[in-house]
Design brief:
about 190 residues; alpha+beta; Alpha-Beta Plaits; 8 strands; about 40% helix; about 25% strand; globular; DUF1697 domain-containing protein; DUF1697
Amino acid sequence: MTDRGKTFVALFSGINVGGNRIVKMAELRSFLEGLGFSDVATYVQSGNAVFRAKKGDAATLTKQIEAAFEKKWGFHSRIMVRDLGWFERLIADNPYPEIAEEPTKLHAYVLEREPTGDEVARLAEKCTGPERFEIKGDVLYLHAPDGLGKSVFAGLIPRTLKVPGTARNWRSVLALREMAGQADGV
């Protein structure tokens, strides 16, 4: 970590969906700056932020941001904070490189923890359509050939797997990694 701090990405879930729980990205940037973070940038309206922190790890920052967010906006948003190295591994470990050029058909679910074998087996039983998935550590990679919006299986993932997480399409994953790399000077 440099004297400027370490670069992180925060993924907010459940904001700006269907006109509910509206959080303007300018307000989110101000909020994160108010917590002492620097080089704050946001990506699209669904709640993605890149920032630098002088101290703390991903787990500590997650708790800090979640608590402050709920206090400010009055509702809970599950937040996944990951560092640049984690994002680089997520991209390098993509089990579907042939789909990476079709970013609306490839999604990464950032999970709170690595699922157990039983949880994965339960989910595999539900995967009967054209979709396919693979879990590597705390990431579920989903290839949805007809897109996420038309995928019945995608809707089953949260309640079947029962591991909290938030999904991003591959375009967002690549954009966030690029933003984090720029903030980090990489």
